[in-house]
Input
Amino acid sequence: MPLLNEKGLQEEIWRELEDHEPIPLEGDVIVPQARLEEALAAPRTGRTGVALPNTIEAEALQPLFNRLSLITVEFPGFGDGRGFSIAKRLRSLGWRGELWADGRVIADQLAYLRAVGFDSARIPEDLFARQPLEDWLTAARSISAAYQMEERAPGVASILERRKAARAAKG
Amino acid sequence: MYRYDEFDQRFVEERVAQFRDQARRRLSGALTEEEFRPLRLMNGLYLQLHAYMLRVAIPYGTLSSDQMRKLADISERYDRGYGHFTTRQNIQYNWIKLEETADILADLASVQMHAIQTSGNCIRNVTSDPFAGAAADEFEDPRPTGELIRQWSSLHPEFSFLPRKFKIAVTGSPNDRAAVKAHDIGLRMIKNEAGDLGYEVIVGGGLGRTPMIGKVIRDFLPKAELLPYLEAVMRVYNLHGRRDNKYKARIKILVHEMGEEPFRKEVEREYARLDVESLAAPAEEVERIQAYFAPPALENLPEESKAFERAKTADPDFRIWAETNLHPHRAPGYTSVVISLKPVGGAPGDATAEQMRVAAEAADLWAFGELRVTHEQNLVLAHVKKDDLYPLYRKLAGAGLDSANRGLVTDIIACPGLDYCALATARSIPIAQRLTERFADPKRQRDIGPLSIKISGCINACGHHHIGHIGILGLDKAGAEFYQLTLGGDPTETAAIGERAGAGFSAEGVVDAIERLVDRYLEIREPSETFLQTYRRTGAESFKDALYAEAG
Output
């Protein structure tokens, strides 16, 4: 499935565990939350990622942060915005690894996803066929400066900081 | 009032270009209608029964005369020459074409206006007291808070796909004219014992299918902590609000189902996690916004105006109007003026382009070029010299804007209803029109005194019927419209949800039923008692007797 952000398509090297598939000892694998303990207990050489539903309490994962390399948060539909707050929580709890929005998000949400701390969005093929990369890049650039102080996508300026700079320039 | 700086201006212009591109992608098929829907809604564009409707934001109900004239121009250029002022201090155009919408948004941006977040599951246009900055009983202008929230909530990355819409209202007076207890978040500006300014934070009020009065979850929130605290409330709601049923998705249901105390604890727990200092609005930004709301340069005048007194004696119609349509101003010799948009037989809240221009001109001549929209769907000129009232009145009268009925039985709130709305189950406007005709006699209206009738054309309650002294809810029963009455509702600081009076009435019968209620009140009231006071004293029974006497 295409993985993208405002810089373009990102290389997708992770493999998602199939249902009932044994935990592989090699390679980078994304496991469902239910099998995370099992995966972390296995003598694996590859990196481990976890796929979270958007009903998760982010705190529950905090003790495992240093053993994980990737977290994906499910977006069952673009209208279900819980993932935005989960990302915010994960980042404020100290998650510094990769963070993906996983599901049917739309191009117009990319800047918001980036602002709350997601690195990329992984979207279904059919959606990508309808909304090609060009749409995502245009949408991500459509608003150049935001009012919020903390949450801003890369490349989006802070209106408050610009105001401050303008005041300073005036002396 | 607030003026855009270059950054605000660029923001709304980029937003217009963004919408243009979204509309293009919708037409190309890149966006499905399902995907486009929230995007257009967050630009105020609804698909209604007959056409698109565009709802334009009038932040905290304040606008300039130039903005009002632009609203008039838009109504002529893109609509049918009128607009509808709403209970959320916005204006709606009912006959809009999708392909012209981006042009309308560009026209709005040219006068520092937008339609951002007037719909959709996001933080909506902040509402406030229409007499803000002028009222005699106010101790702090709530509009700088409104503007701060407007900016903070605009295109908020985390809170644009909430479980459901989210409405915030702010008041700076002990007398609540912003119905803050009927909002998802209500903010009441208060002073603590140390004399510091802050907010009482009320959460979980709302009307709709499950009307609820909001709960105080923070007695005193220091002013500087507003945005971080709002963030904590919003995050708890975004994470835990129900998404399985849109009719149970508002924050009032979450507060109700969690319980007031557990909800408060959850918010405080979230708040404790936040870096309050980095999220709080910088003091210089707060001051910058505050400066725009500096009071206008008022003259030192005697409280009594000779010109005003003379005109009242000379023109009895003017005297009657002045008795109802003025609101006490904090400065001697000044008053606030309510321009009623409730003429007998009219659609509540509608104004023609010509009327908008006359109101704008009156604002330029006598009210510092500024207007307000009220949640009662009227207009206000906030700062008017009593000396100027008579020429102002004459000007308004020339455009049919002189209805002397503010707060009276014909000052009816009504949603658009089945005449326009895709959700409605019954018509609202014709009921309002017939009620105003029934109670048209000015003497009778004044004898009845303060009485608010509010009409909703479906259970979503856009006409706020739950908080009308008399509420009318239009429903559909086996293909026929019928109307349920609620009694004793109150939107103010003594907020109450009206109680169901009993079986409903047909469209033909409801006006007679209201008249029986009013007559009963006149029979049993004590001297100088209002309808609401009588209702609270006597209870529902005597009114129900009157309502159903014929049937029995």
Residues 6-28 of chain B form the longest helix (23 residues). The interface with chain A takes residues 5-8, 10-11, 14-15, 17-18, 21-22, 25, 29-32, 35, 38-39, 121, 151-152, 154-162, 235, 238-239, 243, 273-274, 278-279, 282, 284-285, 288 of chain B (CB under 8 Å). The CA atoms of residues 102 and 183 of chain B lie 30 Å apart.
